[in-house]
Amino acid sequence: MRNVLAFIDAEFTGEHKFTTLVSLGIVGEGDEKIYLSFNDYDRNQVTPWLEENVLAHIDERESVSQEEGFRILADWFESYRKKQSVSLVSFGKTHDLILLFELWHKAYPDREYFHNLYCLPDYLNHAAHFDLTTIFALAGLDPDLDRGNFIEHSVSGQRHEALFDALVVRECFMRCMGKGVFPKQKLI
């Protein structure tokens, strides 16, 4: 049985190791989706760019704490995965996955440090996660290509809104797979 795919995007306070999660969007292979915005990100890290491009489009009344978001997300994954492992596909190689995984630290409040090997559920605790930039490079495409143009703007929405960006990741991935660049059974 192959892993089920989930396409993710996170918005966060900066490209550094102390960044904090602002919002998270995940879409499945079909119509499944979840969007969470968080109210406990580090407000001291907010930049004018983040304010204008991300926070201005978030309804704070709908935002939740990371602890509450973790419970909602864990329930969503349990429902979505149907007892299969989940392979995550993100745009980049690091922050999206790390920030998503660190939500599972909420399940272990007594642990000082989060550890992927011991804190993630089995359905996520594996190496079969992928990033779009590497997939583009392996497909002979420029990893910095304009993703909207690549998918011929087949998805509408607001850039830097995590759910929209997760949909773009899914469409880019599916377009690469549809081109026959990778045999599907080998990649997932």
TrEMBL record:
* InterPro entries with a match to the protein in the record: RNaseH-like_sf (IPR012337), RNaseH_sf (IPR036397)
A GO MF annotation of the entry reads: nucleic acid binding
What this protein is called in its record is Uncharacterized protein DUF5051
Source species: Aestuariispira insulae
The uppermost taxa in this organism's lineage are:
Bacteria, Pseudomonadati, Pseudomonadota, Alphaproteobacteria, Rhodospirillales
